[in-house]
Automatic annotation (TrEMBL):
Highest rank taxon of the organism: Eukaryota
Lineage, uppermost ranks: Eukaryota, Sar, Rhizaria, Retaria, Foraminifera
Positions of region (Disordered): 1-26
Protein known as: Uncharacterized protein
Biased composition range(s): Basic and acidic residues: 13-26
Ranges annotated as biased composition (Polar residues): 1-11
């Protein structure tokens, strides 16, 4: 005999890791009105646009930039993403170790088509790290780690040049 119950099953750990605080970016990003006001500041009286000076953009120093430099023939590889970086991220953001692990598993999951992947969640994670003051070096190491560059994943994001990833 089959008995049905109204008992709901617990959410799996993987599902919980995919969940994020919906209010985590509140107040950190500009509203549409604020963006429009900022854009108006770059137009003169005649309506000509003059872009902002490059010195007003976020920038990182060479050391932080080189954190995820990877040139295998020369034996250049970044340090591993470890507990020190996870601790910094956990202290400054709402993200936890299981959230970071979910990012990695989700990005490197080949069973999902590219349009099925929730890249917006990963983008928001990186934006939250940046806006809440996680160091650029840690963010660069996180990008290297979650995208699978340390394992040679074919769709990894890594730095083959001396360029910054921003």
């Amino acid at each position: 005999m089959l008995a049905l119950s109204n008992r709901s099953f617990a959410t799996t750990v993987k599902d919980k890791a995919a969940q994020r605080d919906p209010e985590r970016l509140k107040g950190l990003t500009l509203t549409k009105q604020q963006v429009e006001e900022a854009m108006k500041a770059h137009y003169d009286e005649e309506g000509s646009y003059s872009p902002p000076h490059a010195s007003t953009f976020p920038s990182i120093d060479r050391r932080a930039c080189l954190m995820n430099l990877r040139i295998p023939p020369l034996g250049i590889a970044p340090p591993p993403f470890g507990d020190e970086q996870v601790k910094e991220i956990e202290q400054k953001t709402t993200l936890r170790r299981d959230n970071l692990q979910w990012d990695r598993e989700h990005w490197t999951d080949d069973s999902l088509q590219p349009d099925e992947k929730s890249v917006d969640v990963i983008i928001d994670d990186i934006q939250e790290m940046y806006k809440k003051g996680v160091s650029f070096a840690t963010i660069n190491l996180f990008i290297d780690w979650f995208s699978g560059a340390d394992k040679g994943y074919k769709h990894a994001i890594y730095n083959k040049t001396w360029a910054r990833i921003e």
